[in-house]
Amino acid sequence: MKQETLVEVEGLWKQYGFPITPYIHRLKHRVGSLLTRQPYVRPELPWAIQDLSFSVRRGETLGIIGRNGSGKSTLLKTLAGVTPPRRGVVKLKGRIFPMIELHAGIHVELTGAENIRLLGALNGLTQQELKEKLPKIIDFCELGPWLDRPVRMYSSGMVVRLGFAVGAFVDADILLIDEVMAVGDTAFYNKCLRHLEYLRSLGTCMLFVSHNMNKMKRVCDRILLMDYGVPLFLGEPDVAVAKYEKLIRPKEGSEALSALVMDDLGVELDNLTLTSADGNRIDILNPGDDLILTFDLNLSEMIEDATLNVSMENMEAIPIIWESLPLEKIKAGLNRFRLHLHQLRVQNGLYFLRISIDVGQYARTGFQVTRAAQIQAQGVPHSIGLYKPERDFSCIEHP
Length: 399
Prior knowledge:
There is one protein chain. The longest helix is centred in the first third of the chain and has 16 residues, at about 20-35. This protein is of the alpha/beta class. About 30% of the residues are buried. The chain has a 6-stranded mixed beta sheet, with helices on both faces. The radius of gyration is 25 Å and the shape is globular. The chain is built from 8 helices and 19 strands. The chain has helices at about 20-35, 70-80, 110-120, 125-140, 155-170, 185-200, 215-220, 235-250; strands spanning about 5-15, 45-55, 60-65, 85-90, 95-100, 175-180, 205-210, 220-225, 230-235, 260-265, 265-275, 285, 290-300, 305-315, 320-330, 335-345, 350-360, 365-375, 390-395. Among the domains are: about 1-95 and about 215-250, P-loop containing nucleotide triphosphate hydrolases (Rossmann fold), CATH 3.40.50; about 255-395, Coagulation Factor XIII, Chain A, domain 1 (Distorted Sandwich), CATH 2.70.50.
């Protein structure tokens, strides 16, 4: 039996600056014409969403992915009624709850327990409903003695626990989720995923925005891929993720992989190579492989009290491996560094190397190159998170 449709979007367009912006431009046009005798040219405002149509059924989870600025969060805010569409139709059936900014409504001077009652009231729970749900909410957020302390003493992860726990027990037909679990420990993160799967089994409809592709493939029935507001694909999660990874993967032959360089120290990175234990260049990393990074840093002057950082990051710029290498000084001129990482086991996917130098007592970043190199890992289907492999590091005098 086909489930009823709870979310239906037809021909949705969204442009920021509407509706007040046209009047501002009209005023600028008149004033400008009077002062300069030249017509005012109205700048073209960008479209956050362009001609988007889709529907979501009861019990279905629709993932929404795309690069930053693709319109993902704008779409959720439009569905939640936070911002109006420029044109198009949005039809929602049932009670909707947006998990977009979980800190919204939380009062830092109130305790966690007081905030639970406050958030429950703001989200439409009656006194009887809150009384019934309170033990479940307290058990879910796992704050222990912190529950009776002011929220201003909480970490960002504890605030997420508090906000998510209340939202998880609001009886909503439609949940809008915008990467609200990005802060927090792994155990709580997995607990949230299990609870979302439970809500889906009860018939809750969910729209889910995240940069974690493994999470999206795990919880979503379909995925919508967007880019600069344009819908590119809507369908099977594996296909959508593959298209997304192809979209953000640097093209072959592009210089420095579109690397971003920040330099306040007069440093140049050069001759970066990735090789295997036998000395051959390596592009694909298999489980258990060694990875040897060799690179040159050319300094205009000596740097003292430095820390050299080398990290391997996934496509969402989340570090999987992070090596901080304290150095008393890095001499002026050419310096060659060699970092040998032993028997790596990282999740399938494309990874980028970031190299940076921190200086001084407060570890100020004075030099940094992102996406300095890339490598493809294969063979390990599940993430094991940030870990510390065995490694050997050396600074080699340049010939």
